[in-house]
């Protein structure tokens, strides 16, 4: 097993494993869930749907029916008045990561029952622990190369990483041979992650102005943990990359097929008397996005494309090929099966904890809930392709285009 870690990593193509067959859309950046993204868009600012402008009589108009304008909304409207309607991509990028008033900069806790959504690790500890076992298994099969970097994109509150570190520590992997690297844009979330993994929150931002990371601390298990704004800032080394429910929140271009050809969905000012400040409109002609992202063989009537997703996938592939490592992309749900691991957990739980565990297990695995909706995409260096054909990653079947 140890010899695998010495294999040459610099080779020409990536070897992928996927729980579901891959489609070309993944490499075009179309890692998205249309229904999910529509919901996200409507929560950012009041937007009226395409084609919902219905003429009404003056007697039906409610005076001053629009809600108060926020500073960010005023900024968006000024930008639209100056340069025309925004692409959905530009709109999402602004409302999500605007440093002053963006969603991830607002300071609210967006996870859990009191927030806007809940991710799989927050539902039940089994999810993160199973991922931790998978990480250890695949890392061990590649020869257990050290030091090991765990890199997570969009780590939320740090729950997934906390569960993974707990599992690795049980296998004897902790301390300085293991380091954690978070790619995070939210100052507020970085503090929550530090508190969860390290037990403290340090105010030491000024100490790292000359470093590529903006925060540094040490986990309760003695491993260093760093925070970065961009994946490119993370040191080049053998790494396990993790992205859970991350790609589906990246900004997208939304494109529709019409009688006149492909048109892009844009965000414009709603001048009507209704409650909405903004509305969806279609571009009058082709846009750069329709020319670049639409392929001649496209058969769908509506697509969503994320250029950022394509760039990130390419960067992950390049790093894994050149430096060695594994990437596991996870999105929405889990297809785990009942096993003895679950029943061992049950033995060590109190009655109330057992009820919570069973509820979480059903949420993650029930076909009517999240059980059939979870997608996994794993990247491995092509150097281990033949080995993985004989010993495929746990939980995956082999798929090649």
From TrEMBL:
Domain of life: Eukaryota
Reaction catalyzed: L-arginyl-[protein] + 2 S-adenosyl-L-methionine = N(omega),N(omega)'-dimethyl-L-arginyl-[protein] + 2 S-adenosyl-L-homocysteine + 2 H(+)
Main location (coarse class): mitochondrion
Keywords: Methyltransferase, Mitochondrion, Transferase
GO BP field: methylation; mitochondrial respiratory chain complex I assembly
EC number: 2.1.1.320
Gene3D superfamilies referenced in this protein's UniProt entry, alphabetically: 3.40.50.12710
Record has Mitochondrion as a keyword: yes
Location within or outside the cell: Mitochondrion
Methyltransferase recorded as keyword: yes
Coiled coil: none
GO molecular function: protein-arginine omega-N symmetric methyltransferase activity
GO cellular component, one term: mitochondrion
Task of the protein: Arginine methyltransferase involved in the assembly or stability of mitochondrial NADH:ubiquinone oxidoreductase complex (complex I).
Family: Belongs to the NDUFAF7 family.
Stored PANTHER family: PROTEIN ARGININE METHYLTRANSFERASE NDUFAF7, MITOCHONDRIAL
Protein's name according to its UniProt entry: Protein arginine methyltransferase NDUFAF7
Organism expressing this protein natively: Cherax quadricarinatus (Australian red claw crayfish)
């Amino acid at each position: 097993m140890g010899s695998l870690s010495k294999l040459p990593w610099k080779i020409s193509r990536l070897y992928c494993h996927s729980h579901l067959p891959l489609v070309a859309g993944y490499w075009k950046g179309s890692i998205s869930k249309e229904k999910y993204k529509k919901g996200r868009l409507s929560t950012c600012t009041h937007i009226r749907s395409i084609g919902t402008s219905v003429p009404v009589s003056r007697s039906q108009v409610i005076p001053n029916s629009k809600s108060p304008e926020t500073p960010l909304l005023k900024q968006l409207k000024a930008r639209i008045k100056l340069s025309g309607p925004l692409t959905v991509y530009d709109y999402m990028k602004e409302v999500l990561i605007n440093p002053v008033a963006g969603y991830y900069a607002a300071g609210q806790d967006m996870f859990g029952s009191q927030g806007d959504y809940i991710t799989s690790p927050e539902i039940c500890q089994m999810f993160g622990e199973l991922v931790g076992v998978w990480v250890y298994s695949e890392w061990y099969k590649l020869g257990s190369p050290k030091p090991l970097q765990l890199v997570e994109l969009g780590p939320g509150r740090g729950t997934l990483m906390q569960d993974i570190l707990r599992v690795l520590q049980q296998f004897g992997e902790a301390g300085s041979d293991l380091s954690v690297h978070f790619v995070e844009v939210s100052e507020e979330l970085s503090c929550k992650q530090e508190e969860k993994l390290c037990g403290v929150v340090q105010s030491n931002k000024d100490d790292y102005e000359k470093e590529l990371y903006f925060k540094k601390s040490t986990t309760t298990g003695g491993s260093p943990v760093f925070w970065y704004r961009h994946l490119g800032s993370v040191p080049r080394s053998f790494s396990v990359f993790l992205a859970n429910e991350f790609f589906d929140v990246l900004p997208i271009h939304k494109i529709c097929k019409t009688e006149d050809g492909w048109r892009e969905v844009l965000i414009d000012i709603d001048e009507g008397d209704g409650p909405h400040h903004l509305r969806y409109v279609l571009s009058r002609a082709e846009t750069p996005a329709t020319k670049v992202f639409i392929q001649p063989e496209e058969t769908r009537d509506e697509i969503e494309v994320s250029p950022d997703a394509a760039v990130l996938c390419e960067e992950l592939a390049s790093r894994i090929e050149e430096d060695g490592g594994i990437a596991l992309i996870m999105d929405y749900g889990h297809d785990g099966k009942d096993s003895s691991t679950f029943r061992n957990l049950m033995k060590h739980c109190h009655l109330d904890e057992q009820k919570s565990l069973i509820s979480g297990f059903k949420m993650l695995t029930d076909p009517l809930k999240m059980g059939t909706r979870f997608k996994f995409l794993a990247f491995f260096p092509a150097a281990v392709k033949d080995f993985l054909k004989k010993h495929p990653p746990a939980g995956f079947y082999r798929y090649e285009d």
